[in-house]
Amino acid sequence: MVNYPNMKKRQMSVSQPSTHKHYTAHRGMSLEEDISLSNEYYLTTQKAVIYKKPTPIQIVKVDYPRREAAKIVEAYYKTPSTTDYNGIYKGKYIDFEAKETRIKSFPFANISLHQVEHLQRIIDHGGIAFIIIAFTSLNEVYLIDASYIIHDYYHSQRKSMTYDKIKTLGHLISQGFQPRLDYLKVVDEVYLKEDE
Amino acid sequence: MVNYPNMKKRQMSVSQPSTHKHYTAHRGMSLEEDISLSNEYYLTTQKAVIYKKPTPIQIVKVDYPRREAAKIVEAYYKTPSTTDYNGIYKGKYIDFEAKETRIKSFPFANISLHQVEHLQRIIDHGGIAFIIIAFTSLNEVYLIDASYIIHDYYHSQRKSMTYDKIKTLGHLISQGFQPRLDYLKVVDEVYLKEDE
């Protein structure tokens, strides 16, 4: 596992209703930033085309100042009905959500029913659907197939999935310099082995 | 072709920097609304999972009034670096842009270099990439494979593609009640014929 001794503390983007600022806090990076940088790397190396969808915003009022760009002066965050990330990798449709948790479990409150339903639809249509979960206190990041989360979301007595279960059912994502989170390596192993 | 005599005039959404309000103006519907309704139909009939990406917004200032939702008080529209729509259909990654034009040609100024590059990447990675073009004065909507637009964008002397060329290279999308624009029928014919 790599720490980043020379990494400067970055300013957090204000484009998100950020409840997830504490992933690997010593590095000053969020899971979202790490995934964004990994996606940029995948894009420039022509490995995959995966983007984060913009946060949906309900715009209420826009001003049109003369000679300037339209200025939104009243707007609100909307609840996303899909996951944050999707794209194409080796000809396959990829779809996932990324979440941080500070405790040693993944609370299902972190994911909405709409997102669970969306992930199930992706599986039904033949896509690759998973969740990336960062345990910030452990500095470990796992990829877990969406079907496990969906199953427990509907059927488990618990309102969360334990770290141990995620460790067993999921796959540790290796951290590095480029890409920071090589989650496509896990995708290769878990979903595309027969194609190699 | 179907008109919609009983269709009530809908209020335009303010969530877009809408320069495209005049598609089939007698119906009061925009191309974007027609595609959204078609996508909802495809979703509920379990035919495909295709969404419009939210418009990217640069948020500058957010107020947090007590007991109320966070209120965005300064924000600006950003230029999208990808296309508006993507999703999965019959296990295939689908990616497209939708544009209206009032004249009898499709001006390349309607599409950004970033979007052209993005569409090329999707083709390179084995996805299905196209553009839906609505000729509002004719009430005709065409699906044209992105490769034709990309080619002419880079190589044509003209700064647009003519209606006649789009009619020849593209495919007319049938309009109806549900779905309003059955563009997946064209996708079947153009891209998935061998799979049937």
Short structural summary:
2 copies of one chain form a homodimer. Chain A is α+β, with helices and mostly antiparallel strands.
* Total domain units of chain A: 1
Largest interface: A-B, 45 and 45 residues
Radius of gyration of chain A: 18 Å
CATH class of chain A: Alpha Beta
Question: Which bin fits the share of residues in helices of chain A?
Answer: 25-40%
Give the N-terminus to C-terminus distance of chain A in angstroms: 27 Å
This entry's quaternary arrangement is: homodimer
Secondary-structure element order of chain A, as H and E? HEEEEEEHEEHEHEH
Q: Assign the structural class of chain A, choosing from mainly alpha, mainly beta, alpha/beta, alpha+beta, or little secondary structure.
A: alpha+beta
What's the architecture of chain A, going by CATH? Answer: 3-Layer(aba) Sandwich
| Mean pLDDT, all residues of chain A | 88
The tally of helices of chain A reads 5
The share of residues in extended strands of chain A comes to: 25-35%
The biggest sheet of chain A, with number of strands, parallel, antiparallel or mixed sense and barrel status, is: 6 strands, mixed
Strand order of the largest sheet of chain A: 1-4-5-7-8-10
| DSSP strand count of chain A | 10
pLDDT < 50 runs, ≥5 residues of chain A? 1-21
